[in-house]
Amino acid sequence: MVAFSDGGDLNNELLGGRIDVASTGMSEAVELVESGDVEIIAVSAPKTMKDGAARGVPTWHDLGMNITINHWRGVFGPADMPDEAVDWWQGALKESVESDEFVKQSEALGINPAYVPGDKWLDTIIRPEEQESTEVLKKVGLVK
Predict the structure, then answer these.
(1) Among residues 5, 129, 134, 6, which one has the least CA distance to residue 70?
(2) Cα→Cα distances 55→46, 58, 111, Å
(3) In terms of DSSP H, where are the helices of 16-140?
(4) Each residue of 49-72: pLDDT tens digit?
(5) In angstroms, rounded to a whole number, what is the distance separating the alpha carbons of residues 39 and 20?
(6) Which 3 state secondary structure label does DSSP give 124?
(7) CA distances in angstroms from 23 to 44, 84, 110, 122, listed in the order given
(8) pTM of the prediction?
(9) Nearest CA to 55 among 104, 112, 12?
(10) For residue 51, what are the contacts with CB-CB under 8 A and spacing of at least 6?
(11) Radius of gyration from C-alpha coordinates of the chain
(12) Paired residues of 59 in beta bridges
């Protein structure tokens, strides 16, 4: 297993034939799938995708692995950021994620975004995934 610093490096290695299989986020792979340069073998989503480039592709669950890996992104500010600034950013991000354009682009990419602010994100996304992710990383030898 090789860890790459970003999706661009990973895609170059995959397209150059130096690696046979890659695990990456849908946003990094969708153009390569649509161009026919790569094929999606499986997705780490909890359910089979109904739309987008991964429509009908089996999940890891379908293949007998009880693992779901969500591909999340966070927006972070300094620890001493004023509450008014935190509130403004959270409101702006929520509004953006709910906009028609964002929803349209998400559907085109076959992704299912969810806006989860601050501590709720830690409690509902990060902490529950921490144990499962650690177990996976131990299995592949990236964590002892």
Answers:
(1) 129
(2) 13, 9, 11
(3) 26-35, 83-97, 100-109, 118-121, 127-139
(4) 887 788 899 999 999 988 777 777
(5) 11
(6) helix
(7) 9, 39, 17, 24
(8) 0.59
(9) 112
(10) 107, 110
(11) 17
(12) 43
What does the alpha-carbon distance between residue 128 and residue 140 come to, in Å, rounded to a whole number?
20
The Cα–Cα gap between 89 and 95 comes to 10
Q: List the structure tokens of 139.
A: 């299995």
Contact between 96 and 102 under an 8 Å Cβ cutoff? The reply is: yes
Sequence length of the chain is 144
pLDDT in tens, 81-114: 999 999 999 999 999 999 999 988 887 776 777 7
Residue type, 80: D
**pLDDT confidence of residue 46:** 82
